[in-house]
Design goal:
The complex is a heterodimer of chains A (128) and B (210).
Chain A lengths: L3 E4 L1 H4 L4 H13 L3 E5 L4 H14 L8 E6 L8 H14 L5 E6 L3 E6 L4 E5 L8
Parallel strand pairs in A: 1-2
Antiparallel strand pairs in A: 2-4, 3-4, 5-6
Helix pairs in contact in A: 2-3
Chain B lengths: L1 H16 L5 E6 L6 H12 L18 E10 L2 E9 L9 H6 L4 H21 L5 E7 L7 H12 L4 E6 L8 H7 L4 E4 L8 H12 L1
Classes of the chains: A alpha+beta (128), B alpha/beta (210).
Chain lengths: 128, 210
């Protein structure tokens, strides 16, 4: 059975980087797929990769598959971009969606670029 | 407050009076994109020797490798830099993947452990780079989160980026897809193995270092 756990942005809003990552990795290490509202900061995504590498072991945890999807502001008008930036400063990175799954369950997440496709491993066969 | 002021003045003085020691060009990218093959091509062209071993098994490079004082001459221009080849950045490493490629279990586990440490080391080294060449396999999906996170972090650090879409000699290579994934960057289609388009790559490197 596949479990998806929704994490609203308000759940991580007041946490510092390490606590945010601990929370998300904790869910993933419970073999659940995280669906998080919004996205982490870029340096936090980097930190998530580092922490994931620290946690990998040869007996269970093999790492994560991660994907974020968010509205592109490149083509938006200047006013829209300013509005979005202001909202980001005031409310945090709430736009978009972040998917993080354990590599033992999620084979691949494809972002192409406006949709997410999640491929899972065939656990009954014990392989991908 | 005084400390902030002191740091600010120190930084200004450093920029004014200290000549930059050496330019560091980092090769970053996912595993098996051809970073070391490109490093070998550059080193062979300008130093007459290769930089490191390459393999079809991912995570062959598990430590930072540096070749110092490489002088590239192209189109009447000259550039001297230190080349930093880094381990491939990944979000997952499974020793069983190495076993499937024919390695013994103990050897595969050791490789996986070293590979995880290599990823951490590569990320930590980002701040030391003056220019980064992001090496991607032109036949793979460029929209992976690792690629997006990597390029985003470089931009946030104001580090100039050149994107090398490698393995253009392979039939499944798709330069247009890489270009559309990174429309605001200089994307150069190359084959490090065959040496295709290397002159254009050097030209981009000159432009990025400028």
């Amino acid at each position: 059975m596949l479990t998806l756990q929704f994490v609203p942005y308000s759940d991580i809003e007041h946490l510092d980087t390490d606590r945010r990552i601990n929370k998300l990795l904790g869910i993933v290490k419970d073999n659940k797929i995280v669906l998080m509202q919004g996205r982490l900061e870029l340096h936090e995504e980097n930190r998530l990769i580092e922490r994931t590498m620290e946690e990998i072991n040869n007996t269970g945890f093999k790492g994560v598959e991660i994907c974020t999807i968010y509205p592109e502001s490149r083509n938006a008008k200047l006013f829209e971009r300013l509005k979005n930036e202001l909202a980001k400063v005031l409310l945090g990175n709430r736009e978009g969606l972040t998917v993080i799954g354990p590599a033992t369950i999620v084979k691949e997440i494809k972002r192409d670029p406006g949709k997410i496709q999640l491929f899972t491993k065939d656990l009954n066969k014990g392989g991908s | 407050m005084i400390k902030v002021l002191k740091d600010f003045i120190d930084r200004i003085l450093l920029q004014l009076f200290q000549k930059k020691k050496s330019v560091k060009v980092g090769l970053y990218g996912p595993p098996n994109a051809g970073k070391t093959t490109l490093a070998n091509k550059i080193c062979k062209d300008w130093l007459g020797e290769e930089m490191g071993a390459v393999s079809s098994i991912p995570h062959e490079t598990r430590k930072i490798n540096i070749k110092e004082k490489i002088t590239v001459k192209s189109g009447g221009k000259e550039l001297t830099f230190n080349l930093v080849d880094t381990p491939g950045i990944a979000t997952k490493i499974d020793f069983e993947d190495f076993v499937k490629k024919g390695m013994k279990s103990a050897q595969a586990k050791q490789r996986a452990k070293e590979a995880t440490m290599g990823v951490i080391e590569a990320i930590k080294w980002l701040d030391n780079m003056d220019v980064v060449v992001v090496v991607l396999d032109a036949g793979e999906n460029p929209y992976s989160q690792v690629n997006i996170t990597m390029v985003g972090n470089l931009v946030a650090r104001k580090i100039p980026v050149v994107i090398a879409a490698n393995k253009m000699d392979l039939r499944k290579a798709n330069l247009k897809k890489v270009e559309s994934a990174f429309p605001q960057y200089d994307v150069i289609g190359i084959s490090a193995k065959q040496g295709h388009n290397i002159e254009e790559f050097y030209e981009s490197l000159f432009n990025a270092v400028r």
